[in-house]
Amino acid sequence: MSTAYNFLFVVYPYICLAVFFMGSLARFDRDQYTWKSDSSQLLRTGQLRWGSNLFHGGILFLFFGHLLGQLTPHAVYGLLLTSSQKQLVAVVAGGVAGTACFIGLTLLLHRRLSDPRIRLTSHRTDIAILVILWVQLALGLSTLPSSLHHVAEPVTMLRLATYLQGIATLNPDAALVAGVEWHFQVHMVLGMTIFLLFPFSRLVHVWSGFASLGYVLRPYQLVRARRLNLPAGHNTPRRVI
């Protein structure tokens, strides 16, 4: 058991992160044509609109909530919130965002599996990654009752946050994870696996979404017109440069 925990919670996270970054870079360099989300909006719009908005809004909130909530040192958020207050906020906000994300993903998965035309144009990896995300969300929602029960003494949250901060500082301690409930452990391992599968799925378009924020800081594009020297009598066209 000790060997298994050491692999899953000490070695495996760095394997997943290495594949995540290097695989994404290699795919962008070698297969830029596949760097897209493969939208099927033309085939069926209504259910896609609801599912996509709920899913993307919820998943972005959950991602940044996990990132900031788990990696922020206790001494920093302790200036504003106690550990119990932080866990209560995480349960309420995460529960709302997770439920919205789960409903949206269920709509997207149902749409992709129930419509023959969309099913025919879907890659097997598209369906597989949706199923994995659906299971991951279900596991995350299953941890909420336990987290709410432990609001008064958020020991599990503190153990997991300390463990994840240890990964970020290259000093993970698998013993911190060994004592928590099984659904927290499976949720974490499956989350790492999603990072591992990221470069080989349509999820790579997430990089483009974050990169597009750079357009906010780009200067305006200047467009000028230049007259061409043509013989008299000809209309003088304008060419944009």
The H/E string reads HHHHHHHHHHHEE
The average pLDDT is 86
Largest sheet: 2 strands, antiparallel
CATH top level label: Mainly Alpha
Please compute the radius of gyration using only Cα atoms: 23 Å
The level of helicity is 55-70%
What is the count of helical runs? 11
Total of domains:
1
Shape type: globular
Q: Terminal Cα separation, in Å? A: 67 Å
Report on the architecture of this protein.
It is found in: Cell membrane. Pfam families: Nitrate_red_gam. InterPro entries: Heme-iron_electron_transfer (IPR051936), NarG-like_domain (IPR023234), NarG-like_sf (IPR036197), Nitrate_red_gam (IPR003816). Residues 6-226 form the NarG-like domain. The protein is mainly α and 241 residues long. It has one domain: Transmembrane di-heme cytochromes, Chain C (Fumarate Reductase Cytochrome B subunit). It has helices spanning 2-30, 46-71, 74-77, 83-114, 116-121, 124-142, 144-149, 155-168, 175-178, 182-197, 205-211, and strands spanning 225-227, 238-240. Helix 2 (46-71) packs antiparallel against helix 4 and helix 4 (83-114) runs antiparallel to helix 6. The longest helix has 32 residues, at 83-114. The mean pLDDT is 86.
